[in-house]
Each structure stands twice: as C-alpha cells, then as structure tokens.
C-alpha cells in the first residue's frame, strides 16, 4: 500500500505515531492468522474524525504491532512503562449515590472479552464467528438463578422482533462507520445475538465489537449492585470459557482503548444546571478520570440534559478502583449540580 496518507485534518493517534520508520518496520509483517498493519489502520484512513484509528485483529497483533500500538496505548490510557494489568474483581460496597433518584437515571457496567485462540471481530472468518457464537451460547445455558435467561440469535428473529429488541437496547445494531471500515460488520447479522436475563438487568452481546460484551444494568444509582451482578455472570462465564488475556495488557480487545479491565462503568445522569456550565463539568470529569458522552453514548448528542458519564481509565487500574473513582467523581458532580 505504501506509506498511508491520512486525511490532513485527522487527529487520530495512529496518524500521530505511525511514522515512515515505524511503517517500514511493520508493513510487511503478518500475524499467524494473516492480520496486517494495513488492515489494522483502515478505520483511521477512512474516518478523518477517528480519535484512535486502529483496531487489533487478534491477540498477536498487540505484540507484533507493538511499535505502533504501544505509543497509542500509553497516550490514551495515560500509562508509562512498565505498566501492568491489575485485576481487582471483588464484590464491593459503597454508600448510595442518589437514593432519591434526583439525578441518576440508570447505571450500566460492561466488560469486553474475546475468546482465546480466535481472531477478533474485525478479522474473524464466518466459520470461526459461528464457533464463537456456539461456544458462548452454550456457556449461557445454565446461568445462576438471579441472572438466568435466554440467548437469541439474530438469524432467528423476524424484522419486527428485531426492531423491538433494538428499541429496548437488548439487541445491538450494525457497527458504526468506524467499526464498518475496520471490518467488524462483515456478514452482519450472521452469528450475532444476545442473551438477556429475565429481569433484563444482565445481558451478553455476542460478536459485536468484541466476541462478548457482558453487561449489567438497572434503572437506579446502585453502581455496587450492578457491579456485583456483573461479577456473578463473569465468574460463571469465566469458568466455562477461556479469554484472550495478557499479563501486561490485560484483557485483549478489538480497540486498544478497551484493553486492561476492558470495563466501562457509567451512569445516565440528568444535569440541568451543569449542562449550562460545561467547563465546570469537564473540569470535574478530568479531575476524576471520567469520560463525558452524549445520551446515546459514543459520538452522540446530549438529550434533555442526560449525560453518559463513565470511567476513562481501563488499563493499569483495577475494576474495584475504577468503581471507587466513578463513585467519588459522581458524588462530586452531584454536589456541584446541587450547589450551582
Ligand atoms: N471511533 C473509533 C474508536 C474509538 C474508541 N471506541 C470504541 N472502540 N468503541 C476511533 O478511533 O475514534
């Protein structure tokens, strides 16, 4: 392909760190499954507004393409060498954040996982994607009673059923243009599906941006209860499935922004006053390593002053520490909202 020409306006981290020397060093390399650097950077080349611009096609990509991925990981996760994954998945108890439901509309915590030995969604072949769906759906058949439920494969759903599940945010739509350019949408909706517990507070998306997105959620501010439910499901799935994990990078994911704990813990919170004081909100978010997103999550706008606020750090920090930081940060934001 020759040295890639990123859009002049692109600010993607891959453009910043992919120097001609690094490209020269990596351009002819392939992982054992045939994943190349050119394939990894397609999203950033096609989408000038990419923040990162690169995806990993398998676990080996993180070592083979470390000369480009490591500087991006250091920059995004604000970690310095030597960094390491610090697991911390213990049940946790913290004071209620918003018991009167004046601000927090819902809490949602998800972790991403990819099965060991399989290419990741941007590079996986149809047959292997089907094997991933089969293995995960089998592991979901006997969940603990509190989160027992049913797996539904998209291919078995009619159009109106699919629309209903999408509107309930139980199913997931085709990936965005960033994921599309990376190859994540190939053969959609084949071998995609979702598990939902009967109370719809525990879900697993299969073959979305990663092989598994394990989600715990509820319409409350009880981030501890949501986290502890997630642990229950994770323990059960972790006993039956082998995940791609590295002692340095932690859980390996399609996007390098998700490695480490691969956990995004957040809330939908109504901030009518802070909406008019974005500088203060951004200051508080930065102070507590939080990420502010629109109501619909990534790349969406804020609707009716409802913000999606979640942890920014995923690597070099434990899941328990993420939850404590989120709790402290949200308490500070709620305090500011009350006192404006
Ligand atoms: N939009 C892509 C990915 C950013 C991180 N979000 C993920 N992985 N869902 C970008 O490079 O900006």
Structural class: alpha+beta
Ligand catalogue = D-arginine
Binned strand content = 15-25%
Point out poorly predicted stretches.
none
What is the number of domains? 2
For the termini, the CA-CA separation is: 55 Å
Report the strand count.
10
CATH superfamily of the largest domain: Glutamine synthetase/guanido kinase, catalytic domain
Strand order of the largest sheet: 2-3-4-5-1-8-10-9
User: What is the CATH C level class of the largest domain, in words?
Assistant: Alpha Beta
Rg (CA only): 20 Å
CATH topology of the largest domain: Creatine Kinase, Chain A, domain 2
Alpha plus pi helix count: 12
Q: Provide the CATH architecture of the largest domain.
A: 2-Layer Sandwich
- Global morphology: globular
Walk me through the structure.
The protein is an alpha+beta fold. It folds into 2 domains: 13-77, Orthogonal Bundle (Transferase Creatine Kinase, Chain A, domain 1); 104-339, 2-Layer Sandwich (Creatine Kinase, Chain A, domain 2), CATH 3.30.590. Helix content is 33%, strand content 16%. An 8-stranded antiparallel beta sheet has the order 2-3-4-5-1-8-10-9, with helices on one face. A two-stranded antiparallel ribbon has the order 6-7. The protein binds D-arginine. D-arginine binds next to loops. D-arginine binds at residues 50-53, 178, 209, 255, 257-258, 298.
Defining key terms:
10 strands; Transferase Creatine Kinase, Chain A, domain 1; 340 residues; binds D-arginine; alpha+beta; Creatine Kinase, Chain A, domain 2; 8-stranded antiparallel beta sheet; single chain
């Amino acid at each position: 392909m020759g040295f890639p020409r990123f859009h002049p306006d692109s600010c993607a981290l891959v453009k910043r760190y992919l120097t001609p020397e690094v490209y020269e060093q990596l351009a002819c390399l392939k992982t054992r499954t045939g994943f190349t650097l050119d394939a990894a950077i397609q999203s950033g080349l096609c989408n000038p507004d990419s923040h990162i611009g690169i995806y990993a096609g398998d676990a080996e990509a993180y070592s083979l393409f470390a000369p480009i991925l490591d500087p991006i990981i250091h920059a995004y996760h604000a970690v310095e060498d030597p960094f390491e994954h610090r697991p911390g998945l213990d049940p946790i108890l913290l004071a209620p954040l918003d018991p009167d439901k004046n601000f927090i509309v819902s809490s949602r915590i998800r972790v991403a996982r990819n099965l060991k030995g399989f290419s990741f969604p941007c590079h996986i072949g149809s047959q292997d994607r089907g094997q991933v769906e089969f293995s995960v759906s089998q592991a979901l058949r006997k969940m603990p009673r509190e989160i027992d439920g049913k797996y539904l494969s998209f291919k078995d759903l009619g159009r109106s059923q699919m629309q209903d599940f999408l509107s309930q945010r139980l199913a997931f739509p085709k990936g965005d243009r960033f994921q599309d350019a990376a190859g994540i949408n190939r053969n959609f909706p084949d071998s995609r599906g979702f598990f939902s517990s009967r109370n719809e507070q525990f879900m697993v998306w299969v073959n979305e941006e990663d092989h598994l997105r394990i989600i715990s959620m509820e319409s409350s501010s009880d981030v501890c209860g949501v986290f502890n439910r997630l642990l229950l499901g994770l323990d059960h799935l972790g006993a039956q499935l082998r995940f791609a994990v590295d002692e340095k990078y932690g859980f390996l994911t399609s996007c390098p922004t998700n490695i480490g704990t691969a956990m995004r813990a957040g809330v939908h919170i109504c901030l009518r006053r802070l909406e008019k004081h974005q500088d203060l909100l951004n200051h508080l978010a930065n102070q507590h390593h939080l990420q502010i997103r629109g109501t619909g999550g990534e790349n969406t706008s804020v609707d009716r002053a409802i913000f999606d606020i979640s942890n920014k750090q995923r690597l070099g920090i434990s899941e328990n520490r993420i939850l404590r930081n989120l709790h402290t940060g949200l308490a500070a934001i709620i305090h500011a909202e009350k006192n404006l």
